[in-house]
Amino acid sequence: MLKENRILIVDDDSHITFILDKILAARGFKPTVCFNGLDALNEFRKEPFPIVITDIDMPVMNGIELIENMKTINDEAVIIILSGMESSSIIIKTMKLGVYDYIVKPMNLDDVCLKIQHAKEAAILKKTEWIIQREKQIRLELQLEWYRWQERIISRKLDVTDASLFEGVRRSFTQGLGFGTLLSLIDIICSNAVNTTDGSSIIDNNIISLFKENIDFAKQGLNAFSDIENIHKNDFNLSRITVMDLFEETATIIRSFHEQSKIKNNTFLVSDPKKHFVNRFINVDRHYMEKMIREVILNSLKFSPGNSPVTIIIDIINDNFVMHVMNIPLKNDRGIIGIPEEYENIIFEPFIRISKIVYEGFATLDYGIGLTMCDKIAEKLKGSIKLFNINDYSNLAEGSQIKVCCEIQIPLVS
Q: Is the domain covering 235-413 a CATH 3.30.565.10 domain?
């Protein structure tokens, strides 16, 4: 959440600023009003605003100069220009400065509210991406990835890795739908079957129905194991697609989670596509890429508290397609929040589970192999997948908040 929903309004027309001030205040924002660019710049220097609405033609300092100066102080602000001029040259010039959108006077209030709502979402996404990159930089500087890899290979901790592995295997096969319930049902069938005089047995239809249901889940479990084996052994059916194609396919996948997102009333906050997505390419197996994206999004929903957002940011960074899926984590049955550092490198191993809970409400296979499958898919695509905690300081009033970020990277191709 943006700190106190602060927004800066800059216009020398007091009638315009009065209307915007009242409208935005009624919608939960905390507007600050300035009547020229210089006063606005001084306010911005004190503490940068996440959203700025500014006129172009103003005394003392015009909107173009204001934007240029604000960009040197903080490039994260989402800027909307407000102008009575409909000249395309003015609009193009401001867009090149990194302006998010524009509003042409006289204002259409419905259009204004919609654009400001979009600007708020864009500001949240910008802040989120900045937090992710900052956390990654800190980790790189401290060489945490290298030291954890050494620890994993040279001296695996029995209490963290091996104990969790065997506990995960036991839980995967002794609880929940599928294998675990089948064992119990077989015992029930054997003890409750009614023998007849001709040597046959009568079994209750309700037990048979449960038995069939769990056989189906057990088959899905075996198919999942087979899938991982196929990923490991066989070549992918690669096709060259644009990043825009993958963005649109991801948007379709997100929409398909409509029913599951209602289980705990979660929402999705998704970044906007960028124009250069249309001429940048990646090689993917569409079937397995979809599997990986689905599994990552599903994990975010399963491990999020109710009424919280799942944030999805897609971008191109250093010649890689990069997807960040971020959620607020639930505290698990062991009191752990998110992904502890000692788990970051082992969480992709089969049967490793931080939580003992099986999330059957989502009707998914909870055998501790979903992330293993994702890791194998990313590796086959010459990419990577990581899962780590970040500290989100975007709401200073509430202090830092731990969030879990899953990062998928796939290299671009020419």
A: yes
